[in-house]
Design brief:
The protein has two domains: about 230 residues, no CATH class; about 160 residues, Alpha-Beta Horseshoe (Leucine-rich repeat, LRR (right-handed beta-alpha superhelix)). Helix content is about 35%, strand content about 10%. By secondary structure, the chain is of the alpha/beta class. It has an eight-stranded mixed β-sheet with strand order 2-1-4-3-5-7-8-6, sandwiched between helices. Helix 6 packs across helix 7, helix 6 runs antiparallel to helix 13 and helix 7 runs parallel beside helix 8.
Length: about 450
């Protein structure tokens, strides 16, 4: 894996083509005992062209280059990295663009490159369609999120990060649309740049294989990558999110394959201390939701369950609601609202009273809320209601109504030192690097 030191990139004053960059590229494994930090740049080319000599990832102003530099420096500052340790991987620079055979070999190693990187950056040149709370779903990154190869790269980045045991992967997007001086002096760090943690939604309409391609010949290749990475992704996701000490479990936006549901329920059995569970927009039907009923019945501390955005019938929702009421040994539930959605009208005890913002979010959301045994309410009071979303109530991921509680925006997930990188990524490289297609 060849990468370019940040200092050399600044000297070029633009994103150089591989032949122009060759003398400044270094092998990532050439300094195993160093503090080298590798940042994988994932992007959509701004000037694609069937004539390869005219194709270029940046515009004539060097806008992407300028945004990338500011993003890299901001990331280094946030992570506590020295700029001299920063190295960048970009396909245009680091994969041979002239020799077809070498280019194909480089692209076949794409997944291994992602696995070896310490961070993942997306220059969102057209901004985001929607974002909030310092996070953005990959499919909401304008133009980028619709591209098949871009989707694959962020999907692999998430799988690799989960394999490293990172709860909050260092996968970020830079909002170039709202940054000042985007086309400013090259190498300048001036101008507002913010990094948004990128989340990935594994749903049919967001899959890499369903993305837009410059060449349809790549579709089958993308699908093979997807099928190879998916089992790793889900296995690692379940392990990372469903830990025995987890208090809040967020599995939103993930369409779990039937083959993984048994493993998921087994893992959830070990999470009896959890207080919150989000299964928002997971593509679950009645049969799948029924699997969770006996598990959730044992969660004595469960307070919030979000099952909105799933194809759940009223009958199943009612059965789930009744199970949770019985399991919590709670009395005095009062159902309010109009069909098919019941609104939250919770009046928490003083000991667990949420903030005004949290109360507003609860009032707006359509979720299932179960009072904790540790905070019993007065029998006959209207202290809690439970609501189950019907299939007719969609909501955007990341909106106030689609979140249970403010997820901590942990932005200090620092990559392991280069010495340990070789050990930690060896197995990942083997699993993630099999047969990558032409980009």
């Amino acid at each position: 894996m060849k990468v370019m030191p940040l200092a050399a990139l600044i000297r070029h004053g633009k994103l150089p083509r591989s032949d122009a960059a060759a003398e400044d590229l270094v092998f990532a494994d050439s300094r195993p005992d160093s503090d080298m930090k590798i940042v994988f740049m994932s992007h959509r080319w701004m000037r694609p062209d069937s004539n390869k000599s005219r194709a270029h990832p940046d515009d004539a102003k060097g806008s992407k280059f300028s945004v990338l530099l500011r993003g890299l420096r901001f990331l280094a500052s946030e992570q506590g990295w020295e700029e001299e340790d920063l190295h960048v991987w970009c396909d245009f620079m680091c994969i041979d663009q002239k020799n077809h055979d070498l280019k194909l070999k480089g692209i076949k190693s794409l997944r291994a490159y992602v696995a070896k990187s310490d961070a993942f950056l997306v220059p969102a040149m057209k901004g985001f369609g929607y974002h909030g709370g310092g996070k953005v779903w990959a499919h909401y990154i304008t133009e980028y999120g619709e591209r098949a190869w871009c989707r694959l790269e962020v999907f692999v980045a998430w799988a690799a990060a989960l394999m490293k045991g990172l709860q909050t992967p260092p996968i970020y997007a830079m909002d170039a649309k709202n940054a000042k001086n985007v086309g400013g002096s090259k190498g300048s760090s001036k101008g507002a740049i913010s990094l948004h943690a990128v989340r990935y939604s594994y749903r049919a309409d967001h899959l890499p294989s369903n993305g837009v391609l410059f060449s349809e010949d790549d579709r089958e290749m993308i699908r093979r990558h997807e099928e190879a990475v998916a089992p790793i992704y889900f296995e690692m996701l379940v392990k990372a999110r469903c830990r025995e000490d987890s208090k809040s479990i967020d599995l939103s936006g993930q369409t779990f394959p039937t083959s993984i549901l048994s493993k998921l329920t087994e893992q959830l059995e070990r999470c009896a201390q959890a207080q919150e569970l989000s299964l928002y927009s997971c593509g679950l039907g009645d049969e799948a939701v029924a699997r969770f009923v006996p598990v959730l019945a044992k969660w004595s501390n469960l307070q919030v369950l979000d099952i909105r955005g799933n194809d759940v019938s009223g009958q199943t929702a009612a059965a789930l609601r009744a199970t949770l009421v019985v399991s919590s040994r709670e009395q005095g539930f009062k159902w309010s609202g109009t069909a098919p959605v019941m609104r939250i009208a919770a009046r928490p005890t003083a000991a667990a009273r949420p903030t005004a913002v949290a109360r507003a979010e609860l009032a707006e959301a359509s979720i299932v809320s179960v009072a904790s045994r540790s905070n019993p309410t007065r029998p006959g009071s209207a202290s809690s209601t439970i609501s189950a979303c019907s299939r007719s109530i969609p909501a955007r991921p990341g909106s106030a109504s689609s979140t249970i509680s403010a997820e901590a925006s942990v932005r200090t997930a620092r990559g392991a030192g280069a010495g340990s990188r070789a050990n930690s990524t060896k197995s990942m490289s083997g699993l993630l690097s099999r047969e990558t297609a032409t980009k």
